[in-house]
Amino acid sequence: MTLGAKKIIVVTLVCTLVVVAVLMLVSAGHAATTLLVHAGAGIRPPLEELGRMFERETGVRVDYSYKGSGCLLADICFSKRGDAYVPGEQYYIDQAKERGFIADSRVVGQMSTVLIVQKGNPDNIRGLRDLTRKGMRVGLGDPKRVAAGRAATEALVKAGLLKQVEENVVTRALNVVELGIGVKLKHLDAAIVWDATAHLFKGDVATIEIPGEWRVSCPIPVGVLNFSSHRDEAEQYMAFLATEDARKVFVKHGYGLPPRPESDEQEEKSD
Question: Cα separations (Å) of 37 from 53, 72, 105, 244?
Fold first, then answer.
């Protein structure tokens, strides 16, 4: 083999090794900047948008695992994987804290219960009491697995109608979006969901407000998981969800907002 041929082979091998090394570094860097976030299915619309915004600002990608809040907690208990947990209710963050899973948490949004019925309201449903009529097909979330199910039960208890309405329940959904689909497709006459869920199906269902004394409001918390492989990035993601830009996204998707932290208000006054 000539000297020139040997040089070509050596150069080719070196270039190949460099390319492989670069690809490995890119792959490792990508994996190191991807967060796994366990999130309630009902919060998907704003979180998808916020995940894209967060990646544009920081270069950190967010992969979501969507299920009912209780199902997600079971996943976390089993797998001990993930970087953040965004359930639809503080109850599930508290449960995760009791198990030692949460390093830090804060509230970033709020939802309230409403009643949705078929488009045009063909059954002339005016409130929760109408759900007790004979033959009504009512959908509720599973109270053991879905935050909206727990809230619906609480609202009906406040109204003194739980037992009567439960006689007409034909669906116990594992996530709140299923209820919106059920009403939209006319498999259900009515369902108790979040105001943000009703917003998601705007134009396909009719929304009826629940009186304030029976309405249940629920904060949306986000928690950083203790076994996160990317704790700094997870903390950054949690802080991002509480920014003014993030608040605007929640409002756009029909969510209410929690009171601003006192520290934020004091900073604004000082500015």
Answer: 15, 10, 13, 21
- pLDDT per residue over 217-257, tens digit each? 989 999 999 999 999 999 999 999 999 999 999 999 988 88
Three-state secondary-structure class, residue 34 = strand
As its CATH architecture, domain 111-217 has 3-Layer(aba) Sandwich (3.40)
In 123-234, the DSSP E strands lie at 138-141, 169-173, 190-194, 205-209, 217-225
- CA-CA distance, 182 to 177, in Å (whole number)? 9
Q: Burial level of 155, CB count in 10 A (0-12/13-18/19+)?
A: buried
Please tell me the class of the 27-108+223-258 domain.
alpha beta
Residue 267: φ, ψ to 5° = -65, -40
pTM to 2 decimal places: 0.71
- What residue ranges do the domains of the chain occupy? 27-108+223-258, 111-217
> How many Å separate Cα 93 from the centre of its chain?
13
Look-up of token digits 């796994």: 36
